[in-house]
Amino acid sequence: MSTAAFDYHRPASIDEAIQLLQQHGEDAKLLAGGHSLVPAMKLRLATTANLIDIGHLDALKYIREDGNALAIGAATTHWEIESSDLVKEKAPLLAQTAAVIGDLQVRNKGTIGGSLAHADPAADYPAAILATEAQICARGADGERTINAADYFVDLYLTSLQADEIITEIRVPLQAANAGSAYVKFPHPASRFAVVGCAAVVTRDGDTCQDVKVGFTGIANAAFRDAGVEDELRGKVVNETSIAAAAAKAAEGVEFLSDAFAGEDYRRHLAQVFAKRALLQAAGV
Ligand code: FAD
Predict the structure, then answer these.
(1) Farthest-apart Cα atoms in the chain, separation
(2) Packed helices 264-283 and 240-247: angle between N→C axes, nearest 10 degrees
C-alpha cells in the first residue's frame, strides 16, 4: 500500500522546521527515521499534506556529556545510542534499551526523538526514560522548555508535547557509581515491541537499597513509574527475598492493556516476572 500524496520539505535548520510547522499547522508532520510514521501513512492510519524531514539535521544528532547529564540529540538513532561508548559508560540503561529495539534495520533508521514523540504504548525507551528520570527538551514557536519524564507520557500515543514543538534533546542523568541498571522485556515474537518491558535503577548503600526507580512499558496505555515496587524495596537489604517481595507489587492498580496475544492476567504475570529480573540484574544479586 502506498501513502496519500504529500509535499516533502527538507529544512536546513531546527528554526526553519519550526517555521514550517507553524506555516502548515495541522497539515504538517515531522519525519525523523520514518519507522513509525511511514508505516502508519502507508496504512492510511496517518495522513499529512506536508512532511517536514528533520532526520538529516546535524544539530539534532549528537551524544555528549553536559554537566551531570548525557545530552542526546533527538535525531540520534537507536544504533548510535546502542553502540556509543559514552552512553554505555555514563547511562548504560539507555544503551541496553536501544539494543533490544526491533531489528538492526529499525535501529539504523529509528530515532530516540521519533520514538518518544510517537509514544507507542509498547515502545522500549519510555521505561528507561522514566527509570532514569530523564528530561525531554522541546522547542516551538514560543521558545524552549524542558519536560520531566514523569510529566511527559500522558496516554495512548499521547504526550505533553505540543503540536508545534520539536523534541530537540533528551537529557539522561549520569548513572551514579553505586547504582546499577537493567532493562528487560518480553518481546512480541513478530514485531519485537515490548509486550511487557521493565527498566530498573537500583542505588545501593552497601547491602541496603538506598534508592530504586522502576519504569514499565507495554502494560498500559502509557508507560509509568511503579511506586508500589519502589516503596517496597527502598531501605531494605537487597537480596532475592526482598526483590521478590517488591516485584510481587508490580503494576498494582494499573488498567492493563489486553489483546489477542496477551490478556490482562498474562500481562500481570509478566509484569511481576520482568520486574524481578530487572531488579535482580540492576542490583547485581
Ligand atoms: P518517525 O516514524 O519519523 O516519526 C514518528 C512520530 O514522531 C511522527 O509523528 C513524527 O512527526 C514525530 N517526530 C519524529 N521526530 C520528532 C521530534 N524530534 N520532535 C517531535 N516529533 C517528532 N520501537 C520500539 O521501541 N521497540 C521495538 O521493538 C520496535 N520494533 C519495531 C519494529 C518494526 C518492524 C518497526 C517498523 C518499528 C519498530 N519500532 C520499535 C519503532 C521504531 O523504534 C521507530 O523508529 C520509532 O518508534 C520512531 O522513530 P522514528 O525516528 O522512526 O520516527
Answers:
(1) 60
(2) 150
> Which residue in this structure is represented by grid cell 500481570?
268
- Among 284, 92, 127, smallest CA distance to 198 is for 127
Residues forming a β-bridge with 143: 140
Name the DSSP class of 172.
Answer: E
> What distance in angstroms lies between residue 127's CA and the mean position of ligand 1's atoms?
15
Ligand 1 pocket, mutate which of 30, 61, 94, 136 (most atoms under 8 A from CB): 30
Distance 148 CA to ligand 1 centre (A): 20
With H, G, I as helix, E, B as strand and everything else as coil, classify residue 98.
helix
For residue range 74-118, list pLDDT tens digits in order. Answer: 999 999 999 999 999 999 999 999 999 999 999 999 999 999 999
pLDDT, tens only, 206-264: 999 999 999 999 999 999 999 999 999 999 999 999 999 999 999 999 999 999 999 99
Residue with the smallest CA separation from ligand 1 atom 21 is 117
CATH number at residue 167: 3.30.465.10
For ligand 1, the distance from its centroid to the CA atom of residue 85, given in whole angstroms, is 23
Answer whether residue 133 is part of any domain. Answer: yes
Counting the structural domains of the chain, the total is 2
Q: Which residues line ligand 1 (CB under 6 A)?
A: 29-37, 39, 54, 74, 101-102, 106, 110-111, 113-115, 117-118, 120, 123-125, 166-167, 191-193
CATH assignment at residue 234: 3.30.390.50
Asked whether residue 66 falls in the same domain as residue 159, the answer is yes
Q: In terms of pTM, does the model score above 0.85?
A: yes
